[in-house]
Amino acid sequence: MVGQLMMLLSGSNTRSKCIGKSSRRDSDAGYPLREHLMTPVENAVEDSPEGRYNIKHKRARNLVERAFGVLKSRWRCLLAAREMHYAPRTAGRITIACAVLHNMCTDRGLDTPNLSQEDINIEIIRQPSSLPSSAVVSQTSAAALNQGRRTRDTLIQLLERTR
């Protein structure tokens, strides 16, 4: 799991292809830190291991957002306005299938269509908002947060070793 994210964070050359199967979501501080959901380190000193991690996290997030933008341009079923009403596992398989098909199109030189301004505006409106800050933290979510911190700390250490 950490190895796949390391490859993404280390700047592996993905060209214009979409990211393949990955078990770790890129995220920001609007989401809770979890083992499978990395967030930036708050108040990290710029030239510290945590600061360098934040820079790589931001780059990875931008790469992932661009990849999803490309997928949404080619496969309109992925747009938020056209919600997929499937179980998460099925929705994930559909997304992976769209990435594979996109890569096949790219390999054959087919251009990616552009989203209309209307589709872009609808996407912006339909994006989920941040989690409420007043949410009560249960013991289960506290344990999940601690596991996320351990995973992120391990990732930061691995990134520093490969520096």
From TrEMBL:
<dbReference type="InterPro" id="IPR027806">
    <property type="entry name" value="HARBI1_dom"/>
</dbReference>
<dbReference type="GO" id="GO:0046872">
    <property type="term" value="F:metal ion binding"/>
</dbReference>
<keyword id="KW-0479">Metal-binding</keyword>
<keyword id="KW-0540">Nuclease</keyword>
<protein>
    <submittedName>
        <fullName>Putative nuclease HARBI1</fullName>
    </submittedName>
</protein>
<keyword id="KW-0378">Hydrolase</keyword>
<feature type="domain" description="DDE Tnp4">
    <location>
        <begin position="28"/>
        <end position="103"/>
    </location>
</feature>
<dbReference type="InterPro" id="IPR045249">
    <property type="entry name" value="HARBI1-like"/>
</dbReference>
<keyword id="KW-0539">Nucleus</keyword>
<dbReference type="Pfam" id="PF13359">
    <property type="entry name" value="DDE_Tnp_4"/>
</dbReference>
<dbReference type="GO" id="GO:0016787">
    <property type="term" value="F:hydrolase activity"/>
</dbReference>
<dbReference type="GO" id="GO:0004518">
    <property type="term" value="F:nuclease activity"/>
</dbReference>
<comment type="similarity">
    <text>Belongs to the HARBI1 family.</text>
</comment>
<dbReference type="GO" id="GO:0005634">
    <property type="term" value="C:nucleus"/>
</dbReference>
